[in-house]
What we know:
Blueprint: H1 4-9, E1 15-16, H2 20-30, H3 36-54, E2 60-66, E3 71-77, E4 83-88, H4 91-101, E5 106-114, E6 121-127, E7 136-140, E8 143-144, H5 148-159, E9 164-172, H6 174-183, E10 189-194, E11 197-198, E12 204-205, H7 211-216
Parallel strand pairs: 1-10, 4-5, 4-7, 7-9, 8-9, 9-10
Antiparallel strand pairs: 2-3, 5-6, 11-12
Helix pairs in contact: 2-3, 3-4
1-O-pyrophosphono-5-O-phosphono-alpha-D-ribofuranose (PRP) binds next to β4, β5, β8, α5 and α7.
Amino acid sequence: MHTQKQLDEKGLKATVVEHPLVQHKLSLMRSKEQPVTAFRSLLREISWLLCYEVCRDLPLEDQPIETPVEAMNAPMLQGKKLAFVSILRAGNGLLDGMLDVIPSARVGHVGLFRDPKTLEAVEYYYKVPHSMSERLIVVVDPMLATANSAIAAVQKLKEGGAINLRFVCLVAAPEGIAAFNKAHPDVPIVTAAVDSHLNDHGYIVPGLGDAGDRIFGTK
Ligand code: PRP
Ligand code: URA
């Protein structure tokens, strides 16, 4: 496991959300004894807190409103509605909680799976909101392993006009952060944890296993 300080010392660029609630919930999720229902609801709860972190510096503008007492200029989110983009299918586990926090967000989906032999990302679906260049795009996927999936998804979104992007995950490998930083140095990463390393099958160690299978109960 890497702390924010260790990550910084290695020159890897990512924000690790070290809040005790996030860390506690993630530890509960990692346990192989955790049933699907608990895994899913913990992921939803953590995504509220990760959403809070990734939106920490969103620009505000004052808008006139009237309270029951008097008129005031009140701070409101500026600009076009942000869009969450879920990398299917495990991204949907994070997406649900993000939408609890920002129900008006637009939503895109990029369907990718990892070829188990080459670990390359294979695309099978792409649908995103209009005006991508004018929105903040928050890409969500619980796992950043080799980063092949996240790199491909962000590349595709940039080709579709996205300029202002951020990536949120639950567990990252140092190898994945290094690769993602190299491919997309302009895209900040927010993660709940940075684990030790990748194993020979491209799984994060200690990680939490296959996120999609654990969310959807497919194994
Ligand atoms: C998992 C995960 C990421 C990807 C991470 O998806 O949700 O998308 O692996 O690995 P990478 O960083 O090495 O690309 P998977 O390919 O298992 O598909 P799924 O979500 O459909 O289960
Ligand atoms: N995808 C997962 O779901 N888990 C890993 O550890 C690596 C890739």
